[in-house]
From TrEMBL:
<feature type="active site" description="Pros-phosphohistidine intermediate">
    <location>
        <position position="126"/>
    </location>
</feature>
<dbReference type="InterPro" id="IPR036850">
    <property type="entry name" value="NDK-like_dom_sf"/>
</dbReference>
<keyword id="KW-0963">Cytoplasm</keyword>
<feature type="domain" description="Nucleoside diphosphate kinase-like">
    <location>
        <begin position="12"/>
        <end position="149"/>
    </location>
</feature>
<keyword id="KW-0460">Magnesium</keyword>
<protein>
    <recommendedName>
        <fullName>Nucleoside diphosphate kinase</fullName>
        <ecNumber>2.7.4.6</ecNumber>
    </recommendedName>
</protein>
<feature type="binding site">
    <location>
        <position position="123"/>
    </location>
    <ligand>
        <name>ATP</name>
    </ligand>
</feature>
<keyword id="KW-0547">Nucleotide-binding</keyword>
<feature type="binding site">
    <location>
        <position position="102"/>
    </location>
    <ligand>
        <name>ATP</name>
    </ligand>
</feature>
<comment type="subunit">
    <text>Homotetramer.</text>
</comment>
<keyword id="KW-0597">Phosphoprotein</keyword>
<keyword id="KW-0479">Metal-binding</keyword>
<feature type="binding site">
    <location>
        <position position="96"/>
    </location>
    <ligand>
        <name>ATP</name>
    </ligand>
</feature>
<keyword id="KW-0546">Nucleotide metabolism</keyword>
<comment type="similarity">
    <text>Belongs to the NDK family.</text>
</comment>
<dbReference type="InterPro" id="IPR001564">
    <property type="entry name" value="Nucleoside_diP_kinase"/>
</dbReference>
<dbReference type="GO" id="GO:0004550">
    <property type="term" value="F:nucleoside diphosphate kinase activity"/>
</dbReference>
Length: 160
């Protein structure tokens, strides 16, 4: 199967996800990764780490002035996190749908937050919200050499 340039660019969209400490503690790592694999997205980066305060504060910099900022940084640094980069056509917006609304009580059943969460401060997973933030977050969390470009053999069965 040959791809033209336009198809390659569309398929190369990337987003950053992080399974937060509550998702790890609750044993939802496999379940969460499964959902993105099942949808047909391609895993290009994965690491398991304890997040430093510096990284947490940089990641949530837009929320620095919000009242929940300190608690959010404490929470994200409280236990290990799974950092992920996924690739595929429309992956940024699609991942946000798979994740569901910020407040798990408002999130639709069938979404990760809707199925597993009840509290906004324990909403299990982060996903980039736009192209610019996705690019910033991927490069904040991963070095270029930690990302793996590859093409799954099922690609022609997912994309015409
Ligand atoms: N958050 C919180 N309390 C709030 C709002 C947000 O603890 O009242 C946390 C929550 O973990 C959320 C994160 O801050 O996921 C970032 O908020 P944002 O509005 O960007 O939500 P998201 O993009 O994660 O859905």
């Amino acid at each position: 199967h040959e791809f033209n340039k336009f198809e390659e660019i569309a398929l190369a969209e990337r987003t950053f996800l992080a399974i937060k400490p509550d998702g790890v503690q609750r044993g939802l790592v496999g379940e969460i990764i499964r959902r993105f694999e099942d949808k047909g997205f391609t895993l290009v980066g994965l690491k398991f780490l304890k997040v430093s305060r510096e990284l947490a504060e940089q990641h949530y910099d837009v929320h620095r002035e919000r009242p929940f900022f300190a608690g959010l940084v404490d929470f994200i640094t409280s236990g290990p996190v799974v950092a992920l980069v996924w690739e595929g056509e429309g992956v940024i917006a699609s991942a946000r749908k798979i994740i569901g609304a910020t407040n798990p009580l408002s999130a639709e059943p069938g979404t990760i937050r809707g199925d597993f969460g009840v509290n906004i401060g324990r909403n299990l997973i982060h996903g980039s919200d736009a192209i610019e933030t996705a690019q910033q977050e991927v490069s904040l969390w991963f070095k270029e050499e930690e990302l793996v470009s590859w093409q799954p053999t099922i690609t022609p069965w997912l994309h015409e």
